[in-house]
Amino acid sequence: MFWIYVIIIATLLIALVELYIFISAGEYMWCIIHNQIPFVASSKYLRRAVVTEIQRHFPHATSVVDIGSGYGGLARHIAKNCDMTVVALENMPFTIMIARIMNFITRSRVKIIKCDAFEYLKSSPHFNIGVAYLGPNVNPRLKEYTKQFDVIITLDVPIEKLKPTRVIDVGHGCTHYGRHKFPHKLFVYDFTK
Ligand SMILES: C[S@@+](CC[C@H](N)C(=O)[O-])C[C@H]1O[C@@H](n2cnc3c(N)ncnc32)[C@H](O)[C@@H]1O
Predict the structure, then answer these.
(1) Closest to 47 in 3D by CA, of 72, 19, 24, 26
(2) Which of 37, 87, 139, 182 to mutate to test ligand 1, by most ligand atoms within 8 A of the CB atom?
(3) How many helices (DSSP H) and strands (DSSP E) are in the chain?
(4) Which pLDDT tens digit goes with each residue over 28-44?
(5) Ligand 1 nearest-atom number relative to CA 68
(6) C-beta 73 within 6 A of ligand 1
(7) What's the rounded Cα separation, in Å, for the pair 22 and 59?
(8) Which CATH number fits domain 44-190: 2.30.110.10, 3.40.50.150, 3.40.50.790, 3.40.50.10350?
(9) pLDDT tens digits, residue range 49-87?
(10) Rounded to two decimals, what is the model's pTM?
(11) What's the CA-to-centroid distance between 166 and ligand 1, angstroms?
(12) What one-character DSSP code corresponds to residue 28?
């Protein structure tokens, strides 16, 4: 009897993992087809660098939004280390479900909003800081939203034709977009200066 339970539980777990792989691959393909950057989690080096940047240069900021938050790892890392309202914007349903489960498990206070980030930002409240790990195809869109923020921090890729206030060389790792390799850097655009 014991072994029957073990086999049933193992079969269920394998089915769950396969379902996870199947649905996340489906969302990934959807993103590629619709020219949207798919979910790829930021590295621990990037997350640490973002928190250090916020703590060092923007200690009085009260709100931050992750524009395209994926499973919410970066947003939760900021919420854990910085005393401010943290909002995470994401539009892929399965990715949001995982982000909500992770929020529940870690008891995170990150507020996850299911939306197209760019539609949301058209009429959103003002945020002190926006962080974006969106890549070279999507980053140019951020230029239309500079009034929504005091500061925008982009990960690895600059905003085309916008001069950053600072560039932080993270020192470890890189992100590949197609055949191009982008070493881990933060591009900080401080619009209050
Ligand atoms: C490279 S991942 C970054 C995840 C997270 N910010 C991190 O650093 O770990 C980009 C995420 O942005 C989401 N995304 C891309 N365009 C979006 C849009 N217009 N609205 C909402 N989410 C978007 C994708 O679904 C994906 O989960």
Answers:
(1) 72
(2) 37
(3) 6, 7
(4) 999 999 989 999 999 99
(5) 12
(6) yes
(7) 42
(8) 3.40.50.150
(9) 999 999 999 999 999 999 999 999 999 999 999 999 999
(10) 0.93
(11) 23
(12) H
- CA of residue 80 to ligand 1 center, whole Å: 20
Q: Which two tokens stand for residue 31?
A: 């993103």
CA of 3: how far to CAs of 9, 11, 47, 193, in Å?
Answer: 10, 12, 44, 67
Q: How many residues are recorded in the chain? A: 193
Contact 142, 68 (CB under 8 A): no
Q: Ligand 1 within 6 A of 91 CB?
A: yes
Domain boundaries, the chain: 1-34, 44-190
Q: Which residues pair with 149 in a beta bridge?
A: 127
What secondary structure letter does DSSP report for 158? Answer: P
